[in-house]
Amino acid sequence: MRLLNSDEMKLVEQYTAKYGLSYQRMMENAGAACARNIRSIIEKEKPMKRNIVVVCGKGNNGGDGFVIARKFSENGYNVCVVLASGYPGSQEATYMYKLVLDLSIPTVWFDADRMKAIQTIKNADVIVDAVFGFSFYGTIGEDMKVLLNEMSTAKGVKFAVDVPSGVYCDSGYNDPNCFKADYTIAISALKPAHITHPAADCCGDIIIANIGIPEDSYNLVRDSLYTYNKTEVSNLFPVRKPTAHKGTFGHLLCICGSRGMVGAPVLAGSAALRSGAGLVTVAFPESAYVPIASKLTEALLMPLPENEEGTLSEKAIEKLLASIDKYDAVLIGCGLGVNEDTKAVLSAVLENAKVPVIIDADGINIIASDISILQRANSQLVLTPHPKEMSRLCGTPAEIILSDTVGAARAFSEKYGVYLVLKAANTVVTEPDTKRAYVNASGNNGLSKGGSGDVLAGLIAGLTVQEFNLSDAITAAVYIHGHTADIVAEKTSKTGMLPSDVVSELSRVFKFFEK
Is residue 270 within 8 Å of 294, Cβ to Cβ? Predict the structure, then answer.
């Protein structure tokens, strides 16, 4: 599904107001849809929650709040409106406020009677935040800090309209004093803040409210952000034909590992096999044969010449290139080591492979020392950096990258013509030929362990050799990696989760996705 940032949402609304619904009608629809969704949740409570406080700002988010208050009043609830920052500012919000006054709904002005406003919030069964919405920027003022803190710590069930107040809609960051919602009702479409951490942690459960905007309005927005749910990922999967054989599902070459990093090829190769790849050949330094062979029994093994450091030697290139044309994709870099020999191996593979090459870990670190290696490649490339590796690739501090992961990933993909998988709390996938970006919402911090990246790289490579297009293979793998970790965390714990636990769970997880 598509994610819209604040500018894109404004564009959609402008087009809709010009050719479809008026702003006033959209506001009425938005408030009514929010009220319906809130009622559907609170009416399940026994005894039902009856005391509703709607805290409204000066803008159109406050206007939505006035509609919510009116709808609850018309349905027999005890409703009070708290004006957070004075009289409404927009024409539409002013109109909706007058309708609230016509119904004699009690109104408290926070700046005029702070104690009464706070006590009203404390006593409420339900608190609705309609202060800022997606328009928030800058920092929260001292008076507003007090108000939002009282709202966040109140005993009632807490709902945010569109985006919790104090959350940056587009970047996924939030003011520390922002409203902390139990539920957020996204108006018309998901916004980046709804799935991007840390802002997503302030949103609670997300509900999307349809307010009648026609699909044509959304078609104005191009090169958007997307995210997938389980069903959408399942739709990416090709049908596994009854007559299929191991050749049908592709042959992957994994060039991974070193004497001191024998786990990396095991994790990557195992994940690739669990993804459904027909054949997986793992190439590694010959001294690592025994520990790898004892753990990786279903893969084909290719021990290769090594140097004194226990990494692949330049002498391994001849054997690798002799068979490179028989593979459907190549994964290189997991546990590879960084030296002149491994640089030569990586360069030779990129210059000679005609199939997609997935580059992870030390493969990325090698490229960071000589970015021109990318320009010598003759195939589609997929790079899977974490923020520190991305920092080395770009020469940009990791904090800057983390402040705009989508922008950083898009810029790199466009500049170097590669697919990029930027691994963070929300992994971002970008494509070389479009500005389309995928933001992943699955996963948890149990993946914050060495080896998790090897599993993801193996999954991406394993799906790539099958009948997926490359973009679908990457986004499906990213989602499934995180989704599997979520299942493991439910069964065990985030703290104790190991990358090998994720690999073991994959065979059950794929049951949902396969056709």
Answer: no
